[in-house]
Amino acid sequence: MTKLYFFPFSQHSRRVVSLLEEAQIPYQANLVDLAKGEHMGPDYLAINPNHQVPSLVDEDVSLYESHAIMRYLCDKHDLSSWYPKDAVKRAQVDQWLDWCQCQFGPMVKDIVFNMLFAEQAGLPVDTIAIERGQKTLESLALILEDKLTQQDYLAADHATIADLALASNIFHLGLAQQAPQSHNIKAWYDRIASLKGFQKSLPQM
Q1: Residue 110 pLDDT > 80, yes or no?
Q2: Contact 6, 13 (CB under 8 A)
Q3: pLDDT, tens digit, for every residue of 52-88?
Q4: Percent of the chain with pLDDT over 90
Q5: 77 to each of 3, 70, 74, 150, how far by Cα in Å?
Q6: Is residue 113 over pLDDT 90?
Q7: CA distances from 195 to 11, 80, 110, 145, 162 (A)
Q8: Strands 2-6 and 61-64
Q9: Is residue 120 over pLDDT 90?
Q10: Which DSSP string do the residues of the chain spell out, in sequence order?
Q11: Which residues, at least 6 apart from 119, have a Cβ–Cβ distance to it below 8 Å?
């Protein structure tokens, strides 16, 4: 059986859980408690030497990096609705996955880690990083809002793994009361948040 190593307060974990649940792929959920340092233990480091979550073990396949895992699952299980086979349509999904990871992701970490988790980890709060993240969020939210004036989803006329990935980041910003509040972003997020798989990915609060 497919084994997923995850932590519910990891946005990268949640996007994979969302896909597994939406696609009704059987899997074994293995909690890696970051708060207890379980990601630094030798057993987990043998699976993911980057000491991060999520990781996926599927028989003789072992993967880390959430977007690689999602692409693999879509290809293995023929989830072409979530990740199209057509080259142009797939490139559109890949574009937004990369935008989520490269443009949006660092900003989310700057804001949420420092506002919520740094003190808990015994680390100083980096107020400069928070301010940098908030300024970046302002500009990226404009790009996202503009895109969502044109269509209801990021890369197709329905939800794809790009939407699951980005929505997991928006939820993460919401933990720090920093989620964008513009009309089209909120409407899009509500559409993704209504998915049962997305709801099942959320941490117990």
Answers
A1: yes
A2: yes
A3: 999 999 999 999 999 999 999 999 999 999 999 999 9
A4: 97
A5: 15, 11, 5, 30
A6: yes
A7: 16, 18, 28, 21, 14
A8: unpaired
A9: no
A10: -EEEEE-TT-HHHHHHHHHHHHTT--EEEEE--GGGTGGGSHHHHHH-TT--S-EEEETTEEEESHHHHHHHHHHHTT-TTTS-SSHHHHHHHHHHHHIIIIIIHHHHIIIIIIIIITTTTT----HHHHHHHHHHHHHHHHHHHHHHHH-SSSSSSS--HHHHHHHHHHHHHHHTT-----HHHHHHHHHHHTSHHHHHHSPP-
A11: 125
Query: The tokens of 61 are what?
Result: 């396949």
Structure confidence at residue 4 (pLDDT): 98
Task: Write down the pLDDT at residue 23.
Answer: 98
Pairing between β-strand 55-58 and β-strand 27-31 as defined by DSSP bridges = unpaired
Strand order in the sheet with 27-31: 27-31, 2-6, 55-58, 61-64
Is residue 21 a contact partner of residue 200, using CB atoms and an 8 Å limit? yes
pTM, to two decimals:
0.97
Contacts of 202 (CB under 8 A, 6+ apart): 8, 14, 171
The structure tokens 């207890």 sit at 36
CA–CA distance, 69 with 61 (Å, rounded to integer): 10
